[in-house]
Design brief:
alpha/beta; 10 strands; 42% helix; 433 residues
């Protein structure tokens, strides 16, 4: 059986709502595939009685909405939920060996929202320990010898494998866009604050973003329109005016990724897109250092009580993050928070002055690294996360080894609607070329 299967959100939901796809049959088929495929991919956490639970939930949903015209917009869609989100009826372990009783609380707001929209939880997905760099067992379904990325490892791999058409993840530096790129799917990190982080175990409250994975842009636009606060349909959009950050920012990518990116840019220019190249942010290393210090400082605060009591149960990279954060002063953290807004102003001022609608860049430093010891480098994503701008990636090519490569697009703060619409325009152009 192929580890990759089509699972487009929009088409799946349309078929379920109309009755063209029987809900109970869909659930049975999804669990069958999970049992066959996930032994190799390991995207989902084990759950005794999963099939019986889903049968009950699907039957209750079908009984509650017998009229197709009255069915909610995500009726019956199966979702994966990263295991730092609280979900009623599930333990939250966060990729850790600490007792899940430490993390109990009210269900994550976005999970409750999805349930009200008609979605059913297929299960919890694997996360790196406390959504940092210590990986779980998940493998890349495009090549099991490679990482799927992290920390939203299971959510990205589960969508890529077609186990679910929609999954929840989080990004504190690069934990949505990077694994989406590695797994050849669409990953979307909204503008800071547009998706609620309530009920999600934090890493850094100043940096954490809740985001989404789908297989295509149309599905992402549907999910975002239903979940993001104050969504305003973008309507028809023209070709966006594109910007490329050259210099120190782009130099963080590998030679192979830069070559692929240059090819995509050339194809877009040939198709009539305006592309402005700006050599700015030569202080990207300083920006990265500020981001990492702020994350460490806030992570140390989140884990203060748990780490004091259970430090021996933390894996080395997570323990190192917390210990680093303990040495960061409140003054340095405050300077980093101020830098977030300062850098955002610099980036958005440059957009206005150069007439740029969207920045385009490599979605990761390269293809998914070999092995499962690392989740890869998030440096191509750090800037956009640090300053809270919306970012989306979509598959755009393949490496020499046949692994997916993603194109990242970032828009102005709060301009998520047009960003996703423009991503559709760019994606269709690259697919046609």
């Amino acid at each position: 059986m192929s580890l990759i299967q089509s699972a487009p959100l929009s088409e799946t939901v349309a078929a379920l709502r109309s009755g063209a796809l029987d809900l109970l049959a869909y659930v049975e088929s999804a669990v069958d595939r999970l049992e066959q495929v996930d032994a190799e991919v390991q995207a989902f956490l084990p759950e005794p009685g999963r099939r019986e639970r889903l049968r009950r939930e699907a039957a209750a949903l079908a009984a509650g909405f017998p009229d197709p015209a009255a069915r909610p917009p995500l009726y019956g869609a199966l979702i994966g939920v990263k295991d730092i989100f609280r979900v009623d009826g599930f333990e939250t372990r966060a990729g850790s060996t600490l007792s899940p009783t430490l993390f109990e609380g009210a269900e994550a707001a976005v999970v409750t929202q999805l349930k009200r929209l008609g979605a059913l939880v297929l299960g919890k997905t694997v996360t790196a320990e406390f959504a940092y760099f210590e990986p779980g067992p998940t493998r890349n379904p495009h090549n099991l010898a490679h990482t799927p990325g992290g920390s939203s490892s299971g959510s990205a791999a589960g969508v890529a494998a077609g186990l679910v058409p929609l999954a929840l993840g989080t990004q504190t530096i690069g934990s949505i866009v990077r694994p989406a790129s590695y797994c050849g799917i669409v990953g979307y990190k909204p503008s800071y604050g547009r998706l609620s982080t309530e009920g999600v175990l934090p890493v850094s409250k100043a940096l954490d973003h809740v985001g989404l994975f789908t297989q295509d842009i149309d599905g992402m636009a549907l999910a975002a329109s239903l979940l993001c606060a104050d969504w305003r349909p973008a309507g028809e959009v023209e070709r966006p005016r594109l910007g490329v950050l050259t210099g120190a920012y782009l130099a963080q990518a590998s030679d192979e990724m830069i070559a692929a990116f240059d090819g995509w840019v050339a194809r877009l220019e040939q198709a009539g897109f305006s592309v402005q190249r700006l050599d700015m942010l030569d202080d990207i290393e300083t920006i990265g250092d500020q981001c990492r210090k702020l994350m460490a400082y806030e992570a140390a605060q989140v884990h203060a009580g748990w780490f004091a009591a259970y430090s021996e149960q933390y894996r080395p990279r997570t323990a190192g993050l917390i210990q680093t954060g303990q040495s960061v002063s409140a003054e340095i953290a405050a300077e980093a928070r101020a830098a977030q807004m300062n850098v955002r102003r610099r980036v958005e001022d440059a957009m206005r002055e150069a007439g740029i609608d969207v920045w385009i860049s490599p979605a990761a430093a390269g293809p998914a690294p070999h092995g499962l010891e690392s989740t890869g480098a998030p440096w191509m994503n750090l800037l956009w996360t640090f300053i809270g701008l919306p970012a989306v990636t979509m598959p755009a090519g393949r490496s020499a080894d046949g692994l997916p490569l993603g194109l990242q697009m970032a828009g102005a703060y709060g301009d998520d609607e047009r960003l996703l619409a423009w991503a559709g325009v760019v994606g269709r152009t690259l697919k046609q070329e």
